[in-house]
Design brief:
276 residues, mainly alpha, 11 helices
Amino acid sequence: MKITGLSPFVLVCMVLGFIFLYAPIVMLIIFSFNASRLVTVWAGFSTHWYGELLHDDQILSAAYLSFRIAFMNGLLSVVIGTMAAFALVRFGRFWGRGVMIQSISSRLVLPDVILGLSILLLFVSTRSVIGWPEQRGVLTILIAHVTFSSAYVAIVVQSRLAGLDRSFEEAAFDLGAPPFAVFRTITLPLIAPSLVAGFLLAFILSFDDLVIASFASGPSATTLPMVVFSKVRLGISPEINALATIIVVVVALGVAFAGNLLQRQNAQRQNEAGRG
């Protein structure tokens, strides 16, 4: 494929940028098939470490726990973030709007250490006052993740709502449709791409989180990033390379599927609009 309209300098910068971004991932995938236990010494092609990974109960249980938390976090963050976005875009000026905007923005820029420490102090304080939570675990991690993930979803959905053409909604109201029907049949399909993007963003943020989960978790709940971090501190294992490769492939397939689905939905809506 010939790239036209780009100077040699731009092409060199583009190639160097792609190498900088993806060369570490490519090397990780290659060495996940290394037969040697020494990750820096190539000893031939082998899928041995993938088999070892499937028999590692600690990693498998942590991966399942992280997936559960990330999935629930994505759903709750979409609901809360969407409600916050509607309040900011559709309700105009109201008491506390400035505080709400500041609280959403602050969660985007606060360091994870500060946010995790504040959440830990909150749980310790509530336990001393009302006796809850008795111990930190899955629920406290989920609450902590929803706290910052919903802010990202609110920003994504807010940008979509702000640029949404409301003529379809107004026409439905003029024809006597109730508010919930208008939201379900018109507004929701129009903002569906932003909801999917917000869910995927919240899912990845939760699945990848280490710092905040370390503050909010207890002995009964250990997420996958916590297990990986504890193993890497003792030295990089080929099993970790295999695990990272599987995660990269799954994420790439998920993003490709979501992008293809959204592209088909947009094309279908454009065709329906053209026929109308």
